[in-house]
Structure formats: structure tokens, C-alpha cells
């Protein structure tokens, strides 16, 4: 192992070792003091973030013969993931206690999952992509089922597991076909083989399509989204919040790297498929969300719809240069938007949820405007951000995404994006109307960390919308390193 | 693989993959669905070894070990989940695990 190898994987190594130690240390923490485990897990994530920031710079570290690398893009995504991990812990801590499902392993499993997600962002070989995919998924299967036999957690776990393993099968077979077509699994070698004409193009196209199907399952794109509402509803809400943000960020960032680096030669065939996938996902996600009365299911369909918006950033992946870089930048900005708004809105759902699935209907939000004005105001900000209305970060994110498809003259896709946003305004703003216009007596949990999370997210959603240019520059810098401009 | 073209191996792996995928979609027993998933993974493994051997590349053979290891980890979690579900529901038929409606 050379020094470059070490630097490339240093954040991941630190977090892995920390998670393993935490598993042991947790044994010595008494059951009524599991807050310490949460605190230690958060410290591990913060430490890893420290290492990630200290390694950030203009250098790209390439390790282990080109299997993994650490560039600006990976750093951006890693920080986003570590941040999501911290938020995941702060929304989980009191919720687990309240629901009586507090177990120390919860936090170790979360750390393992973050390790997998970070490896996914750093992978530059299809095999590492697959290993990272499983490394992030397997802890999530357990987390989804962690409340078993309470509620429907076990059912959510098994559904997530079967569909996740199914999608893993597609990814493996896709990688095998790409390997057969190009005799390589390293992303750069695949691109080189395709460029030199040595690749078997039909085989490579089939392989890349299978990989796309596998990832479409993971990020919940239509028509591979059927599991999402069930799993998001059945899993403990704190797990749902973490899974919705983390798995999406990791899945999309790996998909971006794989498509932009390895498959630009297939853009002619794949870009239209991606455009249709994006359009379908936006339409089905938003239209189905309108009919939901359970807030967890509504947010699950909203999560599907947002996968569609992020997919818009992929349509330009084969254009290379500035166009691809701007599109990738728009994609990762929207991932950041989604992470912020996601943790905020799920945090409030957690605050209103009572034991055994009570407090999850839209009607249960009636009267929140009077009972807890700050919470209602924050929820309003999140709903506005999910719709893409000012004064929120959501608007900024959507504008960049629309710009990325307009830049390649795909006006119809941008129009579908705008129209589906209009549809989504109906069900997001319905929550706001119920909070302020209806009478009710909601019970809320005002525990410190939980409240801190959604207040911070609400503030960030508004404040970040005021500095769109500097966010875009940072994301563009990261994207530029990805496309090697 | 003297004499036998790589196409036959890849053809067989495609057949295995399709059988696996069909099994996941039409079978209702969680264990059999899971077996079908394993079949899909092994179809990938077979394709990997066949291509590696045809092109004289060692890395394809090594990757199969990675995939087998990951599949084993998945089995551990999957079987545990199936057992846990069986204990509370007394069934592993996915049509009966349907409190949540998709």
C-alpha cells in the first residue's frame, strides 16, 4: 500500500475502524445510556468529515491501481453523506427511545452504511461500485427491519431486501457483460476500449442498460419504484429519513461517475432512455402522491418524483465538457437540496409521530400552526422547497436542473418538469393549508436534537437560496474534476 | 476452453439469468425468490469467468470471488430476515406479507 493508496481511502478507513470499535464499545454501555453510543457515532462521522476536508484540494488521489479515487466530486459527495449521517443520528436518537426500539447496533449499522455510500462516491471501477452498493444496502436492510416485530418494520425489511438483491443481480450481470464487451471494469479503460473501437458495442449497450436498471431500483425511478412507498412507510421513520437521502445521494453520484466517465460513447442510445425515465418518474411520482393521505407515503412518492428531477441531470451526460459539467453540478446541487429538505420534513414527521403509527395522517397536522408556530413555519418552508417555490433552496436546485436540459435543447423535458411541479404544489401546499386552516390538537415531541435538526434545516433551506452562485461554483468545481475538464 | 466458443457459456449464463429474473417475478415463496436472486448472481459469475478465460484476463476470475463473498453476506442477512418474519407471521409467502399496499 503506497501513500497515495492510504490518502485515497483514509476517510473510509477511519470511519470503518470507528464503526467496528463502536460495535464493541457499545457492549459496555448500559441500556439506559445508549445516548453515548449515538454521541460516539456522531463523533466518528465528524472526525471523518475532518479528514475529508483536510484531504480536499486540487489534487486527485488515485489508489489501488485505479480502483478508487478521491477527487473534488468525491469530496463534495462524501461531505454531503457524512452530513446526512449526522442528521440521521440526530433525528433518530430520541425517536428510537420513544418508540422503544433503541439498540446500540443502530448507530454502528448506520456508520457501515455511510462507509458503503462513501466508497460508492469514490469508486472508479465497476467491481468497487458493486461492492459499495451492497455495503451500503445490507445495513439498510437490517435498519429497515430493526423494529421487528413491532409494526410493519419486518415487512418493510424483507421487501427492501428482496428488491435490493434483485437489483444487485441486474448490476452484476450488467458489469459482467460490460467486462465481456470491453475486457475491462475500470471506468477509464472501458471508455478507452469504446473509443478505440475495440469494444463489442451491442454487448456493452446491453450491459450498461442492465446496470441502469439496477440503479434505477436503488434510487427509486419509475417503473422500478414499486417497493419505495411500502418500505418508506413500514421502516422506522428515522431510518426512512436516512435511507431516502443517503441511498439517493450515493446511487446518483455513482451513476454519474459511471455514465460520464465510462459510457459517453453510448450517449446516443442511452440519453433518450434516460430522458423518458426522468419524465415518467416525475409524472408517476407526483400524480400518485396527490392521492395519498398518509404523510409517510406522500413523502415516499415525493421522493420518487425527486428522483425524476435528478435524472434530468443525466440526459446531458455524453455531451462532455462544460455542458456535462454543468449538468453534473446541477445534479449534485439538487442532491444537497433534497438532503436538507428531506431531513427537515422527515424530522417534523418524526416529531408528530406517536407510538404504533399514530400521528401519520395528513389530518393529524391540523392545528399545528396554532400549537407550534415555529414547527408549522419550518414545515411550510420544506413544502415550498419541495415544490420549488421561492424563497427556498429548492427553487435554486430546480432552476439549475431545468437549465441543464434546456442547454441541450430538450425543451419538452423541462416543460414536463415545470408541469409536474405545478401538480406537486397541490399536495405539498395541502399540508400547509391543513396546518393553518383546520382546527386540531396535535401532540408534538420537542426534544432538543430533533428540534435543532429541523430548525437548522429550515434556516439552511432559506439562507442557501440567497447565495446560489457560490453554491454553484463549488458544485461546478467538483463536477469539473469529474468530467476532467 | 479449447474447442468450445465463449458464446455457449455466455448463452448459458443468459438463460440462467432469465430463469432467475422470471423466478423472482412469478414465485411467491420468499425463500424461492431469494434462490432465484442467487441464480441471477451466479449467472453473472459464469459470464465473468467465461469472458475472463476467453480473453486470458485474470481479474475477471478474481471478481467472481468478490461477488460470491458479497452474496454470502447477503444470504446471512436475508435468511435472518426471512426467519424473523416467519416467527411473527407464520408464513413466508410474499402475498401474505401485504399489510403495506404498494
Summarize the structure.
Chain A is mainly alpha-helical and 485 residues long. Helix content of chain A is 75%, strand content 1%. Chain A has helices at 3-25, 35-55, 72-98, 105-122, 126-144, 153-182, 187-195, 201-218, 227-234, 237-262, 267-290, 295-311, 321-352, 368-371, 373-387, 393-406, 411-437, 448-464, 468-483, and strands at residues 61-63, 68-70.
Strands, helices and their partners?
The complex is a heterodimer of chains A (485) and B (102).
Chain A: H1 3-25, H2 35-55, E1 61-63, E2 68-70, H3 72-98, H4 105-122, H5 126-144, H6 153-182, H7 187-195, H8 201-218, H9 227-234, H10 237-262, H11 267-290, H12 295-311, H13 321-352, H14 368-371, H15 373-387, H16 393-406, H17 411-437, H18 448-464, H19 468-483
Antiparallel strand pairs in A: 1-2
Helix pairs in contact in A: 1-2, 1-4, 2-3, 3-4, 3-10, 3-13, 3-18, 3-19, 4-5, 4-10, 5-6, 5-10, 6-8, 6-9, 7-10, 9-10, 9-12, 10-12, 10-13, 11-12, 11-17, 12-13, 13-15, 13-16, 13-18, 13-19, 15-17, 15-18, 16-17
Chain B: H1 6-26, H2 30-54, H3 59-89
Structural overview:
The complex is a heterodimer of chains A (485) and B (102). In chain A, α1 (3-25) runs antiparallel to α2, α1 (3-25) runs antiparallel to α4 (105-122) and α16 packs antiparallel against α17. Chain A has one domain (3-483). Chain A starts with a helix and ends with a helix. A two-stranded antiparallel ribbon of chain A has the order 1-2. With 485 residues, chain A is mainly alpha-helical. Helix content of chain A is 75%, strand content 1%. Chain B is mostly helical. Chain B has one domain (7-89): Helix Hairpins (Orthogonal Bundle). In chain B, α1 runs antiparallel to α2 (30-54) and α2 runs antiparallel to α3 (59-89). The N and C termini of chain B lie far apart (47 Å).
